[in-house]
Amino acid sequence: MAEMPFLEPYMAYLQLEKTLSANTSVSYRFDLQRLAGFLKQNDTLDLQKVTPPLLSEYIMLLYDLGFAATSIQRNISSMKSFFAFLASEGNIASDPTELLEAPKTSRTLPSVLSVEEIDLLVGAIDFKKRNGIRDRAIIETLYATGMRVSELCGFAMEQLLEKDGLVRVFGKGSKERIVPIGGSALYWIAQYLDKERFCIAKPDSGSAMFLNFRGKPFSRMGIWKLIRQYAQAAGIQKEISPHTFRHSFATHLLEGGADIRTVQEMLGHSNIVTTEIYTHVDREYLKEIHRSFHPRCQRGVIDAAI
User: Fold this and answer.
1) Exactly one of 148, 197, 228, 247 is catalytic; which is it?
2) 252 is catalytic
3) 158 SS3 class
4) Which of 85, 165, 215, 241 has its CB 3.0 to 4.6 Å from that of 64, i.e. a possible disulfide?
5) Overall fold of domain 115-270
6) Among the residues of 42-131, which ranges form H helices?
7) CATH code assigned to 7-88
8) Is residue 179 within 8 Å of residue 266, measured between CB atoms?
9) Of 134, 197, 252, 269, which is the active-site residue?
């Protein structure tokens, strides 16, 4: 694990000069160690080089990984306190967190791709480039199953029940669920296994389905960067992440008439209230259809009545 520079002097400062509880101090330490791992991946453990856009990218990553808004607020508080301390001690020239904003705690509608946008995104994949088939298989699997990014990273070949058109998914708390996967994703997985995986695999790769260029299972960050790369290539302006495909999976099922309980089971939500956020997206879609096509909602009818 990467070690955050100046962490111990900061923790001593919290203990001696601040009135934070012991639990909050421990949480701040974990938050900053997690941030250190992100900075190391971005070759920026020199805290003088940390910028507001980089920290904003980190906050977006926390959203993408499914962190609660309250947890993200605490992460921002720990960053602000830490960098303010460093600036006051002269360890950095300026505080990069001054312009960071805490997220609202209210529940917001998830970002969703249209079917056309998903077609654009997969159409941006160049199969002439190395591992293009793998990347198509990854995106198809995310959209076909609604997997969380952590579930995709842990996806093993034995979890694919190809003959039945199903996958076994191990979610939070190692809870298992069975999800249909569909013909398109099965086709691209088969292409990947036949043409590319054996070129990437190493003796210690194990049975992980999707491998990075080192022959290791993908990290969450690796999947996140891959998705962002193809979204940019497709010209999609929305902020999207691996989790966007999970949102799109649920929304498109509900738009097509799927029962919310069925969608709840496929998503692995223990509480249906969590799934119901997608019905709000669906309701907006239904209202738009109603406004566009119902004869009593069209502009001309209103004008005639006036």
Assistant:
1) 148
2) no
3) helix
4) 241
5) hpI Integrase; Chain A (1.10.443)
6) 52-64, 69-88, 115-123
7) 1.10.150
8) yes
9) 269
Amino acid identity at 130: R
Q: Which of 49, 107, 130, 172 is catalytic?
A: 172
Ranges of each domain in the chain = 7-88, 115-270
Burial of 216 from C-beta contacts in 10 A (0-12 / 13-18 / 19+): middle
pLDDT of residue 10: 93
Three-state helix/strand/coil letters over 258-297:
CCHHHHHHHHCCCCHHHHHHHHHHHHHHHHHHHHHHCCCC
* Identical fold between 7-88 and 115-270: no
269 classed as catalytic: yes
In 220-271, which residue ranges form alpha helices assigned H by DSSP? 220-233, 242-255, 260-267
Given the residues 74, 136, 228, 243, select the one marked as catalytic: 243
Catalytic pick among 74, 197, 228, 246: 246
Mean pLDDT by 10 residues, the chain (306 residues): 86 82 84 88 87 85 68 88 94 88 54 90 91 95 90 94 90 80 92 95 94 92 91 90 86 76 74 53 49 47 41
Against a cut of 0.70, is the pTM above it?
A: no
